[in-house]
Amino acid sequence: MMPLSFILAAIAISIFLRSLLGYLTRPTCALPPGPKPWPLVGNLPHLGPMPHRSMAALARSYGPLLHLRLGLVDVVVAASGSVATQFLKTHDANFLSRPPRSAGKHLGYNHQGIGAVPYGSRWRMLRKMSTVHLFSSKALDDFRHVRQEEVAILTCALAHVGSASVNLAQLLNVCTANALGRVMLGKRVLGEGKGRDNVKADEFRSMVVEMMVLGGVFNISDYVPALEWLDLQGVAAKMKRLHKRFDAFWTAILEEHRANMSNSGNKHNDLLSTLISLQDVADEEGGNLMDTEIKASVQTMFAAGTDTSSSTTEWAIAELIRQPGILARVQEEIDSVVGRDRLVTELDLPRLTYLQAVVKETFRLHPPTPLSLPRIAAESCEINGYRIPKGATLLVNVWAIARDPEAWAEPLAFQPERFQPGSEKANVDVKGNDFELIPFGAGRRICVGMSLGLRMVQFMTATLAHAFDWEVADGVSPEKLNMDEAFGLTLQRAEPLLVHPKPRLASHVYKTSS
Ligand code: HEM
Q1: Please, is 406 exposed, middle or buried when counting C-beta atoms within 10 Å of its C-beta (0-12, 13-18, 19+)?
Q2: Which of 113, 122, 225, 256 has the highest CB neighbour count under 10 A?
Q3: Nearest Cα to Cα of residue 133 among 286, 301, 349
Q4: How far apart are the C-alpha atoms of 405 and 318, rounded to whole Å?
């Protein structure tokens, strides 16, 4: 038996060594600067109704790398292109997962959808499947006719409103959701009374609206997890109820698809049937794609892909209405490429360089997710000499970055010319390569639907600008158009754009056979 003194000495040495190790590996740097947090709520009171604007203002006082304590959660905010580069390029591997949120838990099948699933083999599998079958150039081209048909229906509807004014966002939303629905589920999801829709369009519409509302609520228990069980705002209860409705909807669609596939010899011509047919293929760790992952991912695609594209297009048209000179230049460009005897097609887009500049400028001033989607630090790390603690939430203020006066001349002015050949930002794109303009995020977890979102926004903006002249409803003059923002799940206009579209092409163009 070992003598007691030896055992005590061993314990003392191990305690000393542990302390020494702790001392040597202690973080040597401080947290990034930020306003002093209040007890318990931390900096929540600093956020106000427009967190992206409040955080931009705080960054002006404290610098482009900001630390906030929201409730009990450490949050770091990147507010310049160079700080975003540090997080999303240099340290991207450390920020590949998203922090758990009540919406992902209660509405997203406990974080099983592509947008919330932690980084790893399941994420890679979902990402690869959707990239190949939904967003690759081939997949996009295969479904081009679908988007063209839906945009033609939108154009036709706008041409026939007569003297009534229209809420452009609503029609754009129906167009994008139906285009996505046809590609992902093989059918329109927001119906349109032509006898071909057999999903419950009204039910779907009301569920999506509620999802956007609940997703936009600032749920206290996301920031003070100890209070989760109290569900102080009743948000979790509402999410659970909504989840039940959504799950019944997706389960019915899955069953219907399986039945159709077995009747048609496993034919699959939409994403859902493709995913079902891939359920036998195992991921790198041997796991198969589960029904819940399919349902969660399809639901995420609708949530992430509809409002983003439609609200950006609404902002683009609002900017064009406010600046008739820019609209005239867009129309002139499209007239010269397309003429006035047909609608724009997606194949025309590469030749419409000024239109593309207009879309870039719209993404710069009105990014639909101004704080991107949050990421979480897997490990502590050091950025720009500051300590980023393990588990901290990263918010990238893409809205502030794209208005940074250090990076942009006249940052608040809508000037598509800045992206024209020979201009300062001619080579800047929105695809995650130029960190001063990252509306789709950047790095490995960049928006998976970027190619589709970009194409949809370019195509809808081009079509609407080409097919119509625009008047604001109620006699509001273009320069008085209210451009205020409202913060929700996506960056919406505070006041919807109510307009009178005036057809400007040959009348046969506004007839659709769909
Ligand atoms: C105007 C269009 C869009 C914008 C500006 C946009 C923006 C974003 C942003 C900023 C992110 C977070 C990226 C990051 O963490 O770095 C994201 C993620 C995502 N987006 Fe988009 N998006 C758009 C359209 C779409 C479309 C059309 C779809 C699908 C139909 C889509 C599906 C997704 C999904 C699934 C994710 C999560 C990806 C992941 O976590 O791996 N988005 N989007």
Answers
A1: exposed
A2: 113
A3: 301
A4: 23
Residue keyed to tokens 């502590």: 380
Binding site membership of 300 for ligand 1 (Cβ less than 6 Å): yes
Distances (CA, A) of 71 to 162, 200, 221, 380: 52, 40, 9, 20
pLDDT tens, N- to C-terminus, the chain (514 residues): 455 565 556 555 655 665 565 555 555 689 999 999 998 889 999 988 899 999 999 999 999 999 999 999 999 999 999 999 999 999 999 999 999 999 999 999 999 999 999 999 999 999 999 999 999 999 999 999 999 999 999 999 999 988 889 999 989 999 999 999 999 999 898 876 443 444 467 788 888 888 888 887 888 889 888 889 899 889 999 999 999 999 999 999 999 999 988 887 767 678 999 999 888 877 677 678 899 999 999 999 999 999 999 999 999 999 999 999 999 999 999 999 999 999 999 999 999 999 999 999 999 999 999 999 999 999 999 999 999 999 999 999 999 999 999 999 999 999 999 999 999 999 999 999 999 999 999 999 999 999 999 999 999 999 999 999 999 998 889 998 999 988 666 778 888 899 999 999 999 999 876 5
Residue type, 482: N
How far is ligand 1, taken at its centre, from the CA of residue 332, in Å?
32
DSSP helix, strand, coil percent of the chain (3-state; round to 5): 55, 10, 35
Contact 234, 100 (CB under 8 A): no
Radius of gyration, CA atoms only, the chain: 25
Distance 451 CA to ligand 1 centre (A): 10
CA-432 nearest atom, ligand 1: 16
* Ligand 1 pocket member 34 (CB < 6 A): no
Å from CA of 189 to ligand 1 middle: 20
- Locate 85 and state its tokens: 């580069």
Residue 176 Cβ < 6 Å to ligand 1 = no
Which residue, judged by its Cα, is nearest atom 4 of ligand 1? 440
Q: How many CB atoms lie within 10 A of CB 391?
A: 13
- Please tell me whether the interface predicted TM-score (ipTM) of this complex is above 0.90: yes
Specify the residue with its C-alpha closest to ligand 1, atom 2.
453
How far apart CA 221 and CA 235 sit, in angstroms, is 9
**Mapping DSSP to helix (H, G, I), strand (E, B) and coil, where does residue 74 land?**
strand
**Binding residue per annotation — 175?**
no
Q: What angle do CA 298, 303, 308 make, to 5 degrees?
A: 130
Q: Which residues contact 408 (CB under 8 A, 6 or more apart)?
A: 364, 402, 418, 425, 436
User: Which of 447, 452, 458 for mutating ligand 1's site (highest number of atoms within 8 Å of CB)?
Assistant: 447
3 state DSSP class of 386 = strand
**Closest Cα to atom 40, ligand 1: which residue?**
115
The finding on whether 127 has its CB within 6 A of some atom of ligand 1 is yes
